[in-house]
Amino acid sequence: MRCPSCGGVDDKVVDSRTADDDTAIRRRRQCLDCGNRFTTFERLEELPLVVVKRSGDHMAFDRGRIMSGVESSAKGRTISAEQLEALALSVEDEARLQGGEITTEQIGLAVLARLRELDEVAYVRFASVYKGFDDPGDFEREIGLLKATAPKAH
Ligand SMILES: [Zn+2]
Questions:
Q1: Chain-centre distance of CA 114, in angstroms?
Q2: Centroid of ligand 1 to alpha carbon of 6 (angstroms)
Q3: What is the pLDDT, as a whole number, of residue 95?
Q4: Cα 142 to ligand 1 centre (Å)
Q5: Segments of the chain scoring below 70 in pLDDT
Q6: pLDDT the model gives residue 21
Q7: Where would I find the beta strands (DSSP E) of 44-144?
């Protein structure tokens, strides 16, 4: 979405709720360039989203599947249902932004990028499933990456 204030195109969804009897979604967005907050209103009759699997098969995009995949990684962590939903919605946005088609790999990477900002433990758990970790060295490497790029504590 283009920021009405500075014209920047990078933003994040800070709040999302349905409106008009669930036929529309109202989203609060924050521009990553200037910090301006604005609201978008999206009708749900938009093009259907398609997921392209590794095999080349297509299936319908299912936000619930993303949420349940992340939910199991987030078990016991302090991630709220709202955060999970915002995460899944933002992956859905990404699919729409690139024309309504997204690969399972892109979904995995999009989830990882967002999960990493929310909770490191949930991130490593999800990564272990997604990336198919099969030996402890994989975990160590991933945690090393986290430490190398984590923002400094205040
Ligand atoms: Zn802006």
A1: 5
A2: 4
A3: 87
A4: 33
A5: 20-23, 44-47, 132-140, 142-143, 145-154
A6: 65
A7: 50-52, 58-60, 101-103
> How far does the centroid of ligand 1 lie from the alpha carbon of residue 94, in Å?
18
Side-chain half-sphere exposure of 102, counting CA atoms within 13 A: 25
> Running DSSP on this structure, what letter comes out for residue 9?
-
CA 9–ligand 1 middle distance (angstroms): 8
Alpha-carbon dihedral of residues 51, 49, 96, 41, nearest 10 degrees?
-150
Dist. CA 142–CA 150, nearest whole Å = 12
Count CB-CB contacts under 10 A for residue 130.
Answer: 18
Q: Dig out the tokens for 64 from the structure.
A: 């619930």
Supply the pLDDT for residue 87.
93
pLDDT score of 20: 63
From ligand 1's centre to the CA of 56, what distance in Å?
A: 38
Q: For residue 22, what is the DSSP state?
A: T
Q: In degrees rounded to 5, what are phi and psi of residue 31?
A: -70, 130
Pair of tokens at residue 43: 């009708």
Q: Residue 17: what residue type?
A: R
How many angstroms does the Cα of residue 35 sit away from the middle of ligand 1? 6
Å from CA of 8 to ligand 1 middle: 5
